[in-house]
Amino acid sequence: MKQRIERIKKQLHSKGYKLTPQREATLTVLLEREEDHLSAEEVFLLVKEKAPEIGLATVYRTLELLSELKIVDKINFGDGVSRYDLRKEGVEHFHHHLVCMECGSVEEIIEDLLGEVEKIVEDEWEFQVKDHRLTFHGICKQCQKVAVKAK
């Protein structure tokens, strides 16, 4: 984790920003809970355990800065809540998600499923794709099993 924070620190410095203790506490929470897709409020509550003096506005500003610098992706799964997802290192595009409409679970698909689609968009519409996001909404394997048992 320290190596990842050090690399992010270099990214911040290259854009003229410092890794303040508040930003580091926020990053640490995001790294520790990388699979959780946390809301700003959830990040704040977890950061507050590490740095009790931190305010909600500071966490919001930090998340927005990290989002602008493409260190973190701000995502919405259709529930009206913005969530923050640390970008995977070394990947060209944002990863995809499977969102269960029953239990709300979120699974990640790391492999890029849209390479061919991207090529078509670039060739046929002369549109230079910089990134893409794909979210599937449906019923997860566990909820499907529960539904079968209930019948």
TrEMBL record:
Required co-factors: Mn(2+); Fe(2+); Zn(2+)
Binding positions for Fe cation per the UniProt entry: 132
GO biological process terms on file: negative regulation of DNA-templated transcription; regulation of secondary metabolite biosynthetic process
Molecular-function annotations in GO: DNA-binding transcription factor activity; transcription cis-regulatory region binding; zinc ion binding
Residues that coordinate or bind Zn(2+): 100, 103, 140, 143
Record Pfam families: FUR (PF01475)
Alphabetical UniProt keywords: DNA-binding, Iron, Metal-binding, Repressor, Transcription, Transcription regulation, Zinc
InterPro entries: FUR, Fur_C, WH-like_DNA-bd_sf, WH_DNA-bd_sf
Manner of cofactor binding, per the entry note: Binds 1 Mn(2+) or Fe(2+) ion per subunit.
SUPFAM superfamilies xrefs: Winged helix' DNA-binding domain
Keyword DNA-binding tagged: yes
Domain of life: Bacteria
Similarity comment: family membership: Belongs to the Fur family.
Name this protein carries in UniProt: Fur family ferric uptake transcriptional regulator
